[in-house]
Amino acid sequence: MSVFLETSRGNLVLDLDKKNARKKFLIVALAHLNHWILSDFDYEKDVSLTGQLADVPEAVKAELDKKELEDTPGTKEESAPPGSVEFLGSEDGFQLRILLDSRSSKDVVGKVAEGLDVLDNVNKSDGKLKILHTHVVFDPFSLDLSSLGQRKTETDFSAEQIKELLKASRAPEDDKASVEALALELLGDLSHYKVKPSPQTLFIAKLNPITTENSLEVIFSRFGAVKKANIMKGKKTPYAFVEFESQESAESAYTQLHDNCTIDGHQVVVDFSQSTSRPGDVGFNEDNFEE
Question: Can you state which reaction this protein catalyses (predicted)?
Fold first, then answer.
């Protein structure tokens, strides 16, 4: 399962491991809620980026209590490479820490699968990094967002607050115009937390840059009619959303490809998209709005 972080310095994709189910639940739930919006990281050069304390909402705790989930606590410290993601704290409040260098740890819950170059650039410059949005790429818990609470949006902040928050996370060489532009982009980008993910859309990560939307349509059409394929330019490698005409076709493609799929020489990741979509995006369907 993966969580996609849009940050002020580039995109990060966090792959969470198969252990520590309760901790994964909390991370996924807060990512669904966009809980870390406009929060920044404490920086320690060549050591780590540590996120702000995330207070777990009571609604999320209630949902967690309904699940029969267990963690597998680490009994000894093991070597963790750069990009490892640690969970610090408890089920009342926790922090995510991303390691910038190798170290011993028993708190690792995953790793940065995409965006190591972003971490490297941050570590070599000023250490400033702020989360702009969080999205869940694949949610094994199939959480009902309405039971968790309302997804946070930029409307929780004033325009001036957003500009000030962004200034604190931008590199010194960034000019006022770039901050203004990003602030306007954020203010116009309202999160549609009431939109259900489309069960007909697959998320394809780690694509070869030479792969085209047409080739994706051809490759995936053997599982059923493809409505549309959109390739997005990631910071390191492109990723895509492929929407089928039917849910059955999407499920067939996922079943046959999620364990082993190579496209244009790249081993790619195939998962169901759990991110909510915006009007005009692949997977957006007005019928998916909840009343």
Answer: [protein]-peptidylproline (omega=180) = [protein]-peptidylproline (omega=0)
